[in-house]
Fold this protein.
Amino acid sequence: MAKPSSRDRRAPEIHLGYYARVAGVRLLVDKFFEACDTAVQVINLGAGFDTTFWRLLEEGRPVKNFVEIDFAGVSARKCHLIKRHKELMGLVAGEEADIRLSKTDLHSTRYHLVAADFTDLPTLEAKLAESEVSFSCPTLILAECALVYVDQNKTSKMMSWLANKFSSCTFVNYEQLNMNDRFGQVMLDNLMSRGCMLAGVTACKDKASQVARFTDNGWDSAQCWNMNEVYSLLPQGEVQRVEAIERLDEKELLRQLFDHYCITVARKNSASFNFESVNFD
């Protein structure tokens, strides 16, 4: 097999973008667990091939229930991959080894992979019921570059529904930011040229629009950090190690790129759980 050439390697800014995204979301996930003194629930919207469930179990985190939602084409492929790999299936099955499996859906005692359009609220509610979701359990909802593909009216209705249904909840959202400036317009044109229609891009105008997506729809509070801010708040020894691997000399393009992505944290607190500590400060 031929080795990949240097031309096949992506730019260091792209790799560092992935690093900052993963490290930033992981830091917030860990803080959510720290804010709870009991087993928690996680719902991943547009989960794709994310492996957070397996990482959390390997770290011994108290996961009561973990639900992944994506379109049928994606969930079917993920179901197939899980079935093919004993390491993945072993953690999914757990000690009870009670698994229900179809072409697109997989259910075990604490892991559920389901096919659904998460903005179709009746279908979403039915899929969450199949996944034995508890609306009183402290719940972390994750979305990474998922909401931007959805019409903002649909997203607003979903946000309101989630805030009304869950008594104690944190939402962590990663996606684009500052899409109205020149650099953002170039990004948008490039995505559209590749057939990526961002129906929800109006919420990516600035930090205020990202926060309002939640606070206008029943969430107690929300904060938004652009990825330059996130990058500066990550452990700097690790950042320097990764930059050395990528041989990054000039940071101007990286700064521009990071200025156009963000992580937003929204919170629905209760008398039992307060999630204000889930932040980068």
